[in-house]
Amino acid sequence: MTTEEIDVKIKQLQLVGDEGYQQQTFGPEILLPKEFNAICQSSHKPKHTKLHCRYNTTTTPFLRLAPFRMEELSLDPYIVAYYNVLSDQEITQLDRLTATLLKKTFAIGPDDDYDDNARTADGAWFPNNETPRTEENIQLIERIINLVSDLTGLQGDKADSFQAVRYGFGGHYTPHFDYLNMSIDQTAFYGDRLATVFFYLNTVKHGGATVFPSLNLKVPAEKGKVLFWYNLDGESFDFDENTEHGGCPVVDGIKLGLVSWINEYDQMFIKPNYRPRNQTY
Ligand SMILES: O=C(O)CCC(=O)C(=O)O
Ligand SMILES: [Fe+2]
């Protein structure tokens, strides 16, 4: 697309940065927090920092055989990106499998799932009952579960902890925290969402980046990349407000992803849980 065409698309979206932002969308306008909107619309320039890119060979012993290219994006909160994680063939298989499952998604709220236009995307839990358990599919699911452990050093849920997402034109996820900080069945059984892993399944030419406004950090959506971050402080397990993040509106094409939220209680044999007693639930 030319610059003029992109401008036309952005105008079509009527993106409005709002000072007194409330989580709502009015009419055709997509109302977004001002800071977030500004970072989404800015051009991405990596900052000069002391952060490193390296091959990760240590998180699990398997990485000695198959290291991953890793880019440190922030040390506190800890945020890293991995490159070329899933092969094109695996991504095609995953896209084919999830394409028919995707339905409009809702955010989790205190009174059940609700629709507040904060996340305008189709999604599906994956694998779910409709996923054919062929040899090929079982292998792919196992591979993704193992990847999550290898990339994070944490224990993912062995059952079905992934959510496939597809954002269309204008699809976005307004800034939010992945931790729930609520007493609901999910947190009672699994604890809160300690960390998040997001697999980007395609490259979005314009829009669709993941943005952490408090850190002024913009992560472009690129095929094969995986973003991993801790939502809770790794030592104290306190909720880290600097992990607020969102998905920028997609300006050109679509954005496909796979999310894995890693729960606290699954880590009981890896990281003892030091959650202070004064926190809820
Ligand atoms: O789409 C993105 O870039 C972020 C998605 C996200 O934050 C989430 O699914 O919790
Ligand atoms: Fe999120």
Automatic annotation (TrEMBL):
Where is it found, in Gene Ontology cellular component terms?
Answer: endoplasmic reticulum
Requisite cofactors: L-ascorbate
Keyword set for this entry? Dioxygenase, Iron, Metal-binding, Oxidoreductase, Vitamin C
Q: Does the keyword Cell membrane apply?
A: no
Q: Does the keyword Oxidoreductase apply?
A: yes
User: Domain Fe2OG dioxygenase spans what residues?
Assistant: 158-264
- Write down a Pfam family by its short name: 2OG-FeII_Oxy_3
Q: Which SMART domains match?
A: P4Hc
Q: Which InterPro entries would you find in this protein's record?
A: Oxoglu/Fe-dep_dioxygenase_dom (IPR005123), P4HA-like (IPR045054), Pro_4_hyd_alph (IPR006620), Pro_4_hyd_alph_FE2OG_OXY (IPR044862)
> Could you tell me one molecular function GO term of this UniProt entry?
L-ascorbic acid binding
Q: Domain of life of the organism in this record?
A: Eukaryota
Protein name (record): Fe2OG dioxygenase domain-containing protein
The organism is Drosophila willistoni (Fruit fly)
